Amino acid sequence: MTAKNEMKDVLGDMDCGRILYDEPMSLHTSLAVGGKAEALVFAENEDQLAQIIGKLSEHRKKYFIAGNLTNVIVRDGGYQGAIVLMTGFKDVTCEPAGGGKGFIYAQAGAALSSVVHLSITEELTGLEFCSGIPGSVGGAVWMNAGAYGREMKDVVESVTVLEADGVKKTMKRNEIIFGYRNTSFPRGTVILGALLKLEKGERSKIKETINEILLWRREKHPLDFPSAGSIFKNLPGQAAGKIIEESGLKGMAVGGAQISSKHANFIINRGGATAADIMRLIETVQSRVKKEKNLVLDTEVVIVGEDE
Asked: Which residues are the active-site residues?
């Protein structure tokens, strides 16, 4: 029996949203690379998500939950399991708090751009740093995304999660440990949404700050080619891009993949790149930086799947 038919046997009789079998992930990742996933599932609501995870767990099938695959590399051998996209989890609502405060509740699959847009409309400040980050709310909270000296930990009031045993729970800010590009959520936890606490501000000033950030991103980041954002985590007091540039690797290419000549912490797909091309660049950077500077660069991008 093929892997495709095995996954169909597991999920085929479920009312769990659209499912694509043996789906090339190069059609869905922001880097436009990646082999086939046994199943790509588009979950529309919490009930569906719980059923999907329960069924996959029951049959001991591997799964990976994602918002929009902007910070993910799927290897060329594909993903032997189900990649579950939180397609239907995109609601973003404002909840006035009084006292110069305001709350925005955003489901995990909502784009950060949607949340930033609502903060402008409601004249709430605090989320400007998310401007131009292409990810989803769930991924941003999970990895404690940040920029310009601020991180998600600075605005999170609480996080609604689905625990590994299928129980829905709301975790307060003080129950979560936020580190640099990581959090303390237990293995198997799925973020469903987050309540963000913001301050009242002036719309004109909020828009001015956002426009400045977007202009800076357009000038400094290679936005004309597919990428996954920052590939490596910064080191304390040292930007990964600067370390890579000082190591003479800026502009280096393997196949269709290239370390951006505009920002060395970006790897871009100039056309026809494979995940293997990108992985070779990642490994080259790590090896060269270790050899020349005795520094270890860890990846910020999430890498899943098997080699071809």
From this structure: 181, 230, 300
